[in-house]
Amino acid sequence: EAFSVVSKLLSQCKLDLLEELVSAEVLQVLKEKLSLLPDNHRDALAADIDAIMYTTEGDVRIYYDDDGMKFVSILMRFWYLNGANLPDEVPGETKVFQIVFGDESTKEKRHLLTANYEFQREFTEGAKPDWTITRIEHPRLLE
């Protein structure tokens, strides 16, 4: 659900609403990248929760910083359908998969897109149980 909410806010360039969810470093990078993004690529960032086809964990890490604070980091990979008006080939010459719904007269083209979001939480005793997104990647869209 967090992926869907964050991706929609990204596509709408509502970065101020992401301040509690996304690290400051990632927000700064996103601000720069979103300002250069074409509208159709920005539209393609949005993932409706019902359009998420598959999710998987890419990497799970537990680590301690120099002060002995304990953290958990989980990289999640998402595959989602999006109806943005994207060309068949996007920058980087990577094929975007297309899925057509309906018959010839009412067909609706959707692209199968991927995204990687890394979630981090401090697990030191007494720390707030809040997750923060420390990496956002939408390959071939948000580069």
Automatic annotation (TrEMBL):
MF GO annotations: ribosome binding
GO biological process, one term: protein insertion into mitochondrial inner membrane from matrix
An annotated GO cellular component: mitochondrial inner membrane
Name the UniProt record assigns to this protein: MAIP1 protein
Protein's organism: Anhinga anhinga
Phylogenetic lineage: Eukaryota, Metazoa, Chordata, Craniata, Vertebrata
